[in-house]
Write a structure and sequence with these properties.
Blueprint (H helix, E strand, L loop, with lengths): L1 H10 L21 E2 L4 E2 H10 L11
């Protein structure tokens, strides 16, 4: 229940811009957040492996 509350709270505009907190819009995770993709590392990996993200390629060397 707390996760849903924090997810809703993160969507609201804060009173001051400094109080903004990054949170994944898909799962609500706050840690491992990539600003470039606006999602957490777990959702990023899942969508990249499915091919849903354009320009993201699995690294191999």
């Amino acid at each position: 229940m707390a996760r849903t509350c924090l997810k809703v709270k993160a969507q609201r505009t804060p009173k001051f811009k400094v109080r903004q907190h990054n949170r994944c819009p898909l799962c609500g995770r706050s840690r491992g957040f990539y600003r470039r993709f606006r999602m957490c590392r777990l959702c990023l990996r899942k969508l990249a492996l499915q091919g849903a993200l354009t320009g993201v390629v699995k690294a191999s060397w």
